[in-house]
Amino acid sequence: MLREDKRRELLDNFMRKHEYDESALLEILHKTQEIYGYLDNESLMYVAQSLNLPPSHVYGVATFYSFFKLKAAGEHVVTGCLGTACYVKGVEEIMQAVEREFNVKRGESTADGKLSLFVTRCIGACAMAPSVVIDGEVMGKATPELVINKLKLLLGGNKTETR
Ligand code: FES
Questions:
Q1: pLDDT digits (tens, 9 = 90+) for 23-35
Q2: How many CA atoms lie within 13 A of 139 on its CB side?
Q3: pLDDT band at 119 (very low <50, low <70, confident <90, very high)
Q4: 133 or 150, greater pLDDT
Q5: Angle, helix 25-36 to helix 41-51, in steps of 10 degrees
Q6: What Cα–Cα distance (Å) separates residue 107 from each residue in 10, 33, 92, 115, 118?
Q7: Which of 126, 133, 137 to mutate to test the pocket of ligand 1 (most atoms within 8 A of CB)?
Q8: Separation CA 107–CA 128 (nearest Å)
Q9: Domain chopping of the chain, boundaries
Q10: Residue 142 — pLDDT band, cuts 50, 70, 90?
Q11: What is the CATH number that goes with domain 76-154?
Q12: Which of 103, 122, 150, 161 is 20 to 30 A (C-alpha) from 19?
């Protein structure tokens, strides 16, 4: 089940706006990817259930179009919000710091699969910009130091393997 948080609220609102209509599946998958940065099993299952569609159909559509990113996320996931407010407040600096520190590129995972780095659009927490989501928790007023320290803690204080 998709975790109940700000992002799911955004997705729920979007699906409601489309009256859970299956003909809006493509738009809904686009929105899901925009919110989460990628499509994974949980989000695809959630969309399938919400629209009352067989999961195989939703997976089929998601895998058919190359603009959908189907990602097996790493053990820990950090997603930077690249929406305007967060961008202006310096989220790019945080993204670059994470890329450097953990030798990972956005949209990818570290070689040991411990950490994935994704980007998303506005997650509705602009007042706390720059916002970063770490394992589903929104960190507002984030800084490179705060994010890196938190990730080091989650990863057991060790750097992940370099490629
Ligand atoms: S732009 Fe990042 S939360 Fe709105």
A1: 999 999 999 999 9
A2: 20
A3: confident
A4: 150
A5: 140
A6: 21, 12, 14, 11, 5
A7: 126
A8: 24
A9: 6-64, 76-154
A10: very high
A11: 3.40.30.10
A12: 122
Residues with CB under 6 A from ligand 1: 81, 83-86, 122-126, 129, 131
Mean pLDDT of 138-146: 96
Q: Pocket of ligand 1, candidates 36, 131, 133, 139: which has the most ligand atoms within 8 Å of its Cβ, to mutate?
A: 131
Token reading at 154: 């989650």
Residue at token pair 């895998």: 63
Average pLDDT score, the chain: 89
The CA radius of gyration of the chain, in Å to the nearest whole number, is 16
d(C-alpha 135, C-alpha 145), whole Å: 17
pTM, 2 dp? 0.66
What residue type is assigned to position 155 of the chain?
A: L
pLDDT tens for 55-82 read 888 888 887 777 888 876 688 888 899 8
- Give the pair of three-digit tokens for residue 75: 């053990």
